[in-house]
Amino acid sequence: MASLETKSKAALLLFLMCWVFSGCVHAIMPLPEGVDFQGKGYCVGAKNIEFLADLTYENADGETVHEQEIFDTIFTLIDNAREYILIDMFLFNSYTGKAEKTYRRLCSELMSTLIKKKSLIPSIKIDFITDPVNNLYGGVKSKEIAMLRNAGINVIYTDLRKLRDSNLLYSPIWRLFIQWFGNSDSGGIFKHPFSEDEPGITLRSYLSLLNYKANHRKVILADNLGKWTTVITSANPHDGSSAHSNIALKITGDFGREIYTAEKSVAAFSHGKLHDVFFEHMDPKNAGQTDCVYSYLVTEKKIEEELIQELESLEPGDSVFMALFYLSHRNIIKALLKAAEAGVNVKIILDPSKDAFGRKKNGIPNRPVAHELTKKSHGQIKIRWYHTHGEQFHTKLTLIEKQNGTAVVVLGSANLTRKNIENFNLELDAKVVGNSSAAVIREIKQYYDRIWHNQGGHYTEDYPFYEDTSFMKTFLYRLYESTGISTF
């Protein structure tokens, strides 16, 4: 009996050692080449950079209004392309969750537009990178992906195993005992997590899902009427997300090189290859322009580093304007509190964390974070909530305006959470630096003022509307953020 007890203790100790070792190794393992990337600055003239926004809101009559620019712009880029299209999109499926209806069939629109383009110009090169969540990690057959491949489009699923693990408690177990079993797309007995109408899936799909990691990027590059054009966005070509409020930046010119370089790395570590593309003959010459802004590509942790650097450099009288789907990263929160204490004007618009594809959320993380920021800044940090109607305020935008007349914008795919900007997920943002008087900066500020002040519609609510002082929710958000055992 003593021998059995000793063996049991030894087995438990061995398991714990393997669990801790695996967790440490896969949380800090070397990143694939090209991840955590910052590109050089490109001078972009006023005519070659444009801010785009999708907004869902109520008008003066209480009617729901959908203003959409982002995917209409993307579809135009695809229509205009003649040589090459590169897309990396996180959610590319028609699932709507528990929602009773969807606003727009974005997935099929994008699929049909790409297939039509390939049919009209068979010689065009199209690369499409996406996340394996769209085939439930090998557990279902994506009809949209199958149709793209049948049309001759190069589709690459990101190999998430090459990325670091953010779920410190669960992922080591998955790495040690589960990943070796692979998956099957022939169906299973477990309910589909994203659709009420789809057939069942395997347990292995759920076990992969619980790693909570993703290629979360959202970007397109195409030759547009003889000029390389990039759209970096927070929006997904996903039916269930089609009514979300989102933002994007359209950049024409040399900047597209950086997108191709960053995405080439993702293709390489995911056992794929992008088509060879040559950029020189399409580069508009922006160098030397006096009205340009400088655009930089930043990915993964470089996003955090750039934001922290900018926030820590602020002086009294400078201003920070944020519009965010998720805010929970401790370093960003500390930097905001420090800035407010130093006399910086800080305004934040947050999603109330209450809606998710027909399901109700509990306000974590944004409501406890908002309480912390408001309380610790003694009300100096001003917060408003976006007034959602079942959809989400899915924007990821930071605008910094300095008293010396310069401005900085950071926008793209990245939520400001540990999972998104600590080299776990793949993320992609643009950083734009220029004068506050630059046209694109003024467009972004006008957008922000519109929704902050409810100009021409009902966009946002005062902070008390969703104020939540729950100690338990604060505890849970801090637990989720530090251990990675949640989706944010």
Give a description of the structure:
The protein is α+β, with helices and mostly antiparallel strands and 488 residues long. The protein has two domains: 42-280, Endonuclease, Chain A (2-Layer Sandwich), CATH 3.30.870.10; 294-482, Endonuclease, Chain A (2-Layer Sandwich), CATH 3.30.870. The chain is 32% helix and 22% strand. The protein is built from 13 helices and 19 strands. It has helices at residues 2-28, 70-80, 106-120, 143-150, 171-178, 203-209, 256-269, 301-312, 330-341, 366-376, 418-421, 439-452, 471-483; strands at 42-44, 49-58, 64-67, 84-89, 125-130, 154-157, 218-224, 227-233, 246-252, 293-299, 319-324, 345-350, 355-356, 359-360, 381-386, 396-401, 406-412, 428-435, 460-462. Helix 8 (301-312) runs parallel beside helix 9 (330-341). It is globular and about 75 Å long. The model has no long low-confidence stretch (mean pLDDT 94).
What's a concise summary of this model?
The chain has helices at 2-28, 70-80, 106-120, 143-150, 171-178, 203-209, 256-269, 301-312, 330-341, 366-376, 418-421, 439-452, 471-483; strands at residues 42-44, 49-58, 64-67, 84-89, 125-130, 154-157, 218-224, 227-233, 246-252, 293-299, 319-324, 345-350, 355-356, 359-360, 381-386, 396-401, 406-412, 428-435, 460-462. With 488 residues, the protein is of the alpha+beta class.
